[in-house]
Design goal:
Shape: globular
Distance between the termini: 34 Å
Number of helices: 8
Strand order of the largest sheet: 6-7-8-3-9-10
Number of strands: 10
Helix content: 25-40%
Strand content: 15-25%
Radius of gyration: 18 Å
């Protein structure tokens, strides 16, 4: 598979609210191929921010631009975006190979090149030999590897990660972060990763967004935020938590 590249991402005066909920408002500009950590309290709007970019939620006003193209009203399947959730979004009745193949064809009508790329993605994510297994026969880490393999074959310039490794132990979590880093080296996509773990942010990202009360309350270099030079709100959110070493 040839190397790809990321896409610039811009949110212009994006407004959204759930029925009966508080209004959210986002402005954001991210350069192509950046890796950005999105941190903030539970319920602050991190997942909503990612869902607005992916197209799973539609704003009341404002625009979502990807490489300068307005995708605000486009459905998720028409956006140049892949997303991995905590529950990894696999189909239980399909094999590993078929779940990955959905990244190329929703009907699983696959060309010989598609099948070769799927096989390569399975090798690269450590799933060779498990092509015919169903998701229930896999560990949590293996299911996340299937989701990453699907991202490999989709080749979209934007990747959104909504706490996909939150339920994994530290060692397995680091393995998944290594795979994401390798994916970024290969395809250069723009990555936004929602996480509560400062280690994840330090390990993978160059930029950090702090989301609080439905808005981006701080943005800057990850190393600055995690060395005590972030916003006061971020320091309160982080509390006494230390980085894992």
């Amino acid at each position: 598979m040839m190397a790809g590249q990321g896409a610039a991402l811009q949110l212009e005066d994006l407004s959204f609210s759930y029925p009966g909920g508080s209004p959210m408002h986002f402005n954001l500009a991210i350069a192509a191929s950046q890796i950005v950590a999105v941190m903030g309290p539970s319920g602050s709007g991190k997942s909503t921010l990612l869902n607005l970019i992916a197209g799973f939620e539609i704003p009341a006003s404002g625009r979502v631009l990807i490489n300068g193209v307005d995708v605000t009203r486009k459905p998720p399947f028409e956006r140049p975006v892949s997303m991995i959730f905590q529950e990894n979004n696999l189909f239980g009745h399909l094999t590993v190979e078929q779940n990955v193949g959905l990244g190329r064809s929703s009907s699983l009508r696959l060309s010989p090149q598609d099948r070769a790329d799927i096989a390569e993605a399975l090798v690269r994510t450590g799933l060779a030999g498990k092509e015919k297994r169903l998701p229930h026969a896999l560990s949590g880490g293996e299911r996340q590897r299937v989701a990453l393999a699907r991202v490999l074959v989709r080749r979209r310039p934007v990747l959104l990660l909504d706490e996909p490794f939150a339920l994994l132990g530290p060692a397995l979590r680091d393995e998944m972060l290594d795979l994401v880093e390798e994916l970024h080296r290969d395809q250069g996509m723009t990555i936004l990763m929602a996480t509560h773990d400062p280690h994840d942010a330090e390990r993978l990202s160059q930029m950090l967004l702090f989301v609080e009360n439905g808005e981006i309350a701080g943005a800057g270099a990850t190393k600055d935020f995690l060395s005590g030079r972030g916003t006061a709100g971020f320091e309160r959110y982080l509390g006494g938590r230390k980085l894992r070493r």
